[in-house]
UniProtKB/TrEMBL annotation:
Annotated ranges, domain ABC transmembrane type-1: 42-325
Locations listed in the record: Cell membrane
InterPro entries (alphabetical): AAA+_ATPase, ABC1_TM_dom, ABC1_TM_sf, ABC_transporter-like_ATP-bd, ABC_transporter-like_CS, P-loop_NTPase, Type_1_exporter
Bilayer topology annotation: Multi-pass membrane protein
Main location class: membrane
Keywords per UniProt: ATP-binding, Membrane, Nucleotide-binding, Transmembrane, Transmembrane helix
Name the UniProt record assigns to this protein: Lipid A ABC transporter permease/ATP-binding protein
Stretches that traverse the bilayer: 39-66, 78-99, 157-176, 182-204
Family annotation (SMART domains): AAA (SM00382)
Species per Swiss-Prot/TrEMBL record: Saccharibacillus kuerlensis
Keyword Transmembrane helix appears in the UniProt entry: yes
Residue intervals of the ABC transporter domain: 363-597
Length: 608
C-alpha cells in the first residue's frame, strides 16, 4: 500500500496547480468541445431571453392594473383581462425556461460525455510507466468528478452569464424607463456590491479548494483501504485505520463546514445589501408617491425589480467560484490529455505491417539495456535469440528481471538501448494492435473483468462464439470447474474476478490464449497457483497449443520448465547460463544447484 504514496495525485492539493491556471486556455478547450453544439446554445440564449422577458413583464402588468384601474376605482373586465394575461405570461415563461433548461442540459451533458470518452480513450493508450507514477484514484477523480465540474460550467456558469446577464440588463432598462431618478439611485449600490464580492472572492475560493483537496484525500484513503482490506484485517489494523480515517473525515468535515459557512455569509451579506436598497427605494419612492410625483403602481414595479435585481448579481458572483473550480478541473484533465505515452505508436512512414498469419515468431533481444528509472538499470546489454517455434524456459532469482524482459517484449515500456525484434522487425515499428495480437501473455495474477466467464475468455469480442469459448475451456481443463459454478459459463464475475481462486483465474486466462492463438506465447509464473495435478493438465494443453509457436515460460517451479528446448538462467539483469536441462546439469552452475535444492527439499517431485 505504501507505494501508492509515491505516485502523483492529480486529485490532491488544488492550490499547487493554482498558479498555472489560465482562464483563457480553459475557455479554449471548452469552446472546442462546445463548437458542435453551437446551435443548441443559440437556442438556449433565445429561450432564456423569451423566458426572462415574460417574467419581467409581470410587474409591469401589475403596475398597469394598479395605476390605470385600481387607483381610479375601475375594476371588472379590464382587471380580469390583465389577470389572464399575467397567467398566460407565466405559462410562456414556464415553457421557455423548460425548453432552455432541456436544451442546455442536452448540450452540456453531451459535451461532458465526449470529454469523458476522450479522456478514458487517452488514458487507456498510456504506457505502463504512466500508471507506475500516477495514482489510479486521481485518474478516477479526473474521469468522474472533474468532468462533473465541467458539466457545471455549462449548466450553471454559462447559463447564469447568459440568463442573469440579460436579466440584469433588462431590469436596468425597465427601471430607467419607469423612473430614471430612482433607477440612478439604485445603481449607487453597485460599487458596494463589487467591493463585497471582491472581498469574499479569494476567501470563498480557498475554502472551496481546501474542501476539495480534503475530499480527494478521503477518497484516496478509502480506495487504498478497500484494496488492502484483507491485509488490514489479518493484521488487526481496523482500529488504527479507523483512527486515521476519522482524522481525514474530520478534516473534510471541517473544511466543508467552513466552505458552507462562508457561502452562507456571502449570500446573506448580499441579502442585507438587497434589503438596504429596498428600504432606500421605499423611502425615496414613498416620498415621491406622497408628493404625487410618482404613481403607486410604479413604486410597486420598482420594488419588484429591485428584488429581482439582486438575484442575478448574486448568481453571477457565485458562478465565479464555479468557474474557478472549472479551471482547476480543466487544467487537471488537460494535464492528462497532454501527457504523451512514453511508448509511441509508429508513425505512418516507419510503420511496418505484421502479417499475423505469416509471421514465424522469431524473437531477438539485441544489446538490450533497460531500467524503470534512469539511475537503476534492470537489464544490462542483454542478447537473446529465440528461434521460431522454440520453447524457452526462464528461471532466475527474484527481481532478476524476468518479468521486465516480458514487459519489454510486450512494449509496455521501451528499451533504453538496443532493440527487440520480431522476425527481424523492430517492435517499435509495429503497431500496438499488431504486436499484441502476435504476442500473448499470461501473468501470475491474471486480471479478470467484471462480466460473464464467456466474456472474460473472449474479452468481450462478439465475433468469437460461445462454442469456441467452451471448446477452449474444455481444452485447458477449465470446463469442469466452470460447470460447478452456479450459472456455468454465464456466471457473472465481480471486480477482478473475485469469487474464483487464483488457480481458477489462471485456467480462464489459459482459455483466453487458446481462443486468441497468438504466435508468440508468454507465461509469466502462469501456473504457479495450480496444484500439480491441474498443472499437468494445463501443461499438456499447453504443449499442444504451443506447437509451432514461440513460447517463453517463466517459472520458479523447475518441473514446469525442465522439458523446454532451452532454459535460460537470469541473474541481476543478465543471462548467466543457457542450455537444455541436461546441459545445464552437466555445467554444474546455478541451475544445477537450484535443481539439487529443489530435489532435496522435496518441494517438487523431480526425476534424478
Ligand atoms: N514498475 C516498476 N517500477 C520500478 N521498478 C520495477 C518495476 N517493476 C519491477 N521493478 C524492479 O525491476 C527489477 C526486476 O523486476 P522483475 O519484475 O523483472 O523481476 P522478476 O525476475 O520477474 O522477479 P520475480 O521472480 O520476483 O517475479 C526489480 O528490482 C524490481 O524492483
Ligand atoms: Mg516476475
Amino acid at each position: 500500500m505504501t507505494n501508492l504514496s509515491k505516485k502523483t495525485d492529480h486529485g490532491g492539493d488544488a492550490r499547487s496547480s493554482e498558479q498555472k491556471l489560465s482562464a483563457s486556455s480553459t475557455l479554449k478547450l471548452l469552446m472546442n468541445y462546445a463548437r458542435p453544439h453551437r446551435l443548441a446554445f443559440v437556442g438556449v440564449a433565445f429561450c432564456a431571453l423569451l423566458g426572462i422577458s415574460a417574467e419581467l413583464l409581470q410587474p409591469l402588468l401589475v403596475q398597469i392594473a394598479i395605476d390605470n384601474h385600481i387607483v381610479k376605482g375601475e375594476g371588472g373586465g379590464a382587471l380580469v383581462k390583465l389577470g389572464l394575461l399575467y397567467l398566460g405570461i407565466a405559462i410562456v415563461s414556464f415553457v421557455f425556461t423548460y425548453l432552455q433548461n432541456n436544451l442546455l442540459q442536452y448540450a452540456g451533458q453531451s459535451i461532458v460525455a465526449r470529454i469523458r470518452k476522450d479522456l478514458f480513450g487517452h488514458i487507456s493508450k498510456m504506457s505502463m510507466s504512466f500508471f507506475d507514477r500516477t495514482h489510479s484514484g486521481s485518474l478516477v477523480t479526473n474521469v468522474s468528478n472533474d468532468t462533473e465540474t465541467i458539466s457545471q460550467f455549462f449548466t450553471q456558469v454559462l447559463l447564469s452569464l447568459v440568463r442573469d446577464g440579460m436579466m440584469l440588463i433588462l431590469i436596468i432598462v425597465l427601471m430607467f424607463s419607469l423612473d430614471a431618478r430612482l433607477a440612478a439611485f439604485s445603481l449607487l449600490i453597485l460599487p458596494v456590491i463589487f467591493v463585497v464580492a471582491a472581498l469574499f472572492r479569494s476567501y470563498l475560493r480557498s475554502t472551496y479548494q481546501q474542501a476539495r483537496s480534503k475530499l480527494s484525500r478521503l477518497i484516496a484513503f478509502t480506495a487504498e483501504n478497500l484494496s488492502g482490506m484483507g491485509l488490514i484485517q489479518s493484521f488487526r489494523q481496523e482500529e488504527e485505520q479507523l483512527g486515521r480515517f476519522t482524522e481525514q473525515n474530520r478534516n473534510y468535515w471541517n473544511a466543508n463546514l467552513r466552505q458552507i459557512r462562508s457561502n452562507v455569509l456571502f449570500n446573506r451579506t448580499f441579502d442585507i445589501l438587497g434589503n438596504a436598497a429596498l428600504v432606500l427605494m421605499v423611502w425615496l419612492g414613498g416620498r415621491a408617491v406622497l408628493g404625487e410625483t410618482m404613481e403607486v403602481g410604479v413604486l410597486y414595479a420598482f420594488v419588484s425589480y429591485i428584488r429581482q435585481f439582486f438575484q442575478p448579481i448574486n448568481q453571477i458572483t457565485m458562478q465565479w467560484n464555479t468557474f474557478q473550480s472549472t479551471t482547476v478541473a480543466v487544467e487537471r484533465i488537460q494535464r492528462v490529455l497532454e501527457t504523451k505515452p512514453d511508448v509511441r505508436e509508429p508513425s505512418e512512414p516507419e510503420r511496418l505491417p505484421l502479417k499475423l498469419d505469416s509471421i514465424r515468431g522469431e524473437v531477438d533481444f539485441r544489446n538490450v539495456s533497460f531500467g524503470y528509472r534512469a539511475d537503476r538499470p534492470v537489464l544490462k546489454k542483454l542478447n537473446l535469440h529465440l528461434k521460431a517455434g522454440e520453447m524457452i524456459g526462464v528461471v532466475g532469482t527474484t527481481g532478476a528481471g524476468k518479468s521486465t524482459l516480458i514487459s519489454l517484449l510486450n512494449r509496455f515500456y521501451d528499451v533504453n538501448e538496443g532493440s527487440i525484434q520480431i522476425d527481424g522487425t523492430d517492435i517499435r515499428r509495429i503497431s500496438g494492435s499488431d504486436l499484441h495480437a502476435a504476442v500473448g501473455l499470461i501473468q501470475q495474477d491474471p486480471y479478470l473483468f467484471s462480466g460473464s466467464i464467456v466474456d472474460n475468455v473472449r474479452l468481450f469480442r462478439e465475433d468469437i462464439t460461445r462454442e469456441q469459448v467452451m471448446g477452449a475451456c474444455r481444452f485447458v481443463g477449465a470446463h469442469p470447474m466452470i460447470m460447478r459454478l452456479q450459472n456455468g459459463y454465464d456466471t457473472h464475475l465481480s471486480e477482478r474476478g473475485s469469487g474464483l481462486s487464483a488457480g481458477e483465474r489462471q485456467l480462464i486466462s489459459f482459455a483466453r490464449i487458446v481462443v486468441f492463438q497468438p504466435k508468440i506465447l508468454i507465461l509469466d509464473e502462469a501456473t504457479a497457483n495450480l496444484d500439480s495435478e491441474t498443472e499437468k493438465l494445463v501443461q499438456e494443453a499447453l504443449s499442444s497449443v504451443s506447437q509451432g509457436r514461440t513460447t517463453i515460460v517463466i517459472a520458479h517451479r523447475l518441473s514446469t520448465i525442465m522439458h523446454a528446448d532451452r532454459i535460460l538462467v537470469m541473474k541481476d539483469g543478465q543471462l548467466t547460463e543457457q542450455g537444455t536441462h541436461a546441459q545445464l546439469l552437466t555445467l554444474g552452475g546455478h541451475y544445477a544447484e537450484l535443481y539439487r535444492h529443489a530435489r532435496q527439499s522435496g518441494r517438487e517431485q523431480l526425476p534424478g
